[in-house]
# Entry
Amino acid sequence: MAFFDIPLPVFMGQLLIGLINGAFYAVLSLGLALIFGLLNIVNFAHGALYMVGAFVAFLLLDILGIGYWPSLVLAPIIVGLFGIVIERLLLRPLADLDHLYGLLLTFGLALLLEGAFRHFYGVSGERYAIPDSLQGGFNLGFMFLPTYRAWVIAASLIVCIATWLLIEKTRLGATMRAAVENADLVRAFGVNVPLLVTITYGFGVALAAFAGVLAAPIYSVNPLMGSNIIIVVFAIVVIGGLGSIKGAIVSGFLLGVCEGLTRVFWPEASNIVIFVVMAIVLIVRPAGLFGKAA
Amino acid sequence: MTEFLLSVEGLEAWYDESHILHGMNFTVGKGEIVTLLGRNGAGKTTTMRSIMGLVRKRTGSIRFGSVETIGLSANQIARAGIAFCPEERGIFSSLTVKENLMLPPVVAEGGMGVDRVYELFPILQARGASQGTKLSGGEQQMLAIARILRTGAHLLLLDEPTEGLAPVIVEQIGQIIQKLKEEGFTILLVEQNFRFAEAVGDRHYVVEHGEVIDSFERREVEANREKITGYLGV
# Structure
């Protein structure tokens, strides 16, 4: 069986890789979108915090013997708390300045974090094993689907949908959406918006760390893993529409698949296809696919 | 004199480097409807925003009941029991009508129940699932007032609730404000529309260049009509 002269297993294999990458893109761009919406900061440290999430899982195992499943919860909490400290100590004092300062600060932070881990662990990467319960795979007839990869896609989807429901369907979410539109007025209703901002940053960072833990068994735990992925994620956030939750999720998965399929049909173009899409979207719909025109 | 619910003394406020309020003095008694009148740019809205804590640089004294609020943040001031209905209404476009209505948290006991709010504003129940900004201007104004009635705040700051609305809607808003007074709310009202202000207000302060330059009780309005219209340039 073949598809456009491409053997089906090859096609499906690339589709799967695309979905996996899309899962990471979606979770990362979701966090970026949340943070951008409420803090108006493009969080350049997002990729580094994703890397820190993976390293925390690695260190929990290496030093304390804590395995994958507890780490999947613990690492996002630890890194999220670190994010809260960053917001309170570093980002808060910049809140009234030009947004460029926040961008520069998070960029510097990313360099610091990467540099620190590189200093201690080098760039060769540390191995993190797939947990026993997710070993093996399913034979789908036309291809072999590793259990862990199926889990990554499912877990990312669940987290994305849960976050979307939180934002769109709950009272807390309504308050967050209102604060994105007019923070002053929401404060004047008695809502502690600065606290909401801190929690949002912590949550967005925790999402990055969650993606990092998911990624650890697939890619090696490497200080540079964040900077490899984050530029693509920024492009995806722009394509989805800056600050749009739905846009971040949908375009994350969509562009992951788009990248995977390009690898089938025109491998040389797969590294730039997302940026080409971004350029086209910016020309046709400058606010992004799901963004509201300013 | 009645007990003051709000007492503003020597209030000065700045936006960046521009000095907007130059020592505002006025009081609002419990259960009163007090209006701030004045031309565009006189400092009425800035006064409202300063009371609400939304103007960062402000000095002087704003006492709400026994609480000095000049040093408090906006959310603390709201929690103390002051509710704000801003100019331009401030309806959130990413929220439904119902979400807009339920957004302000309850800050004290004794706020209106949702049923009572729907009784006063039936349209809000009928249009609950619509996007907030899909309502007409008048309906948005109703929503902006309705959502702060739920919170239990006793002092309502209404910034130009009649702006840009058809006369028949303005009349409805007037009736609602009267009803709120009967229910014991205290209201500070900023208005350009003097006919509306005189219909609902118990007392009026005239603001010019960031100061109160004159004040009138309801019974003094008739005798001073020319003077007042002169102040307002109408």
Notes: Residues 8-39 of chain A form the longest helix (32 residues). The interface with chain B takes residues 171, 174-175, 177-178, 180-182, 184-193 of chain A (CB under 8 Å).
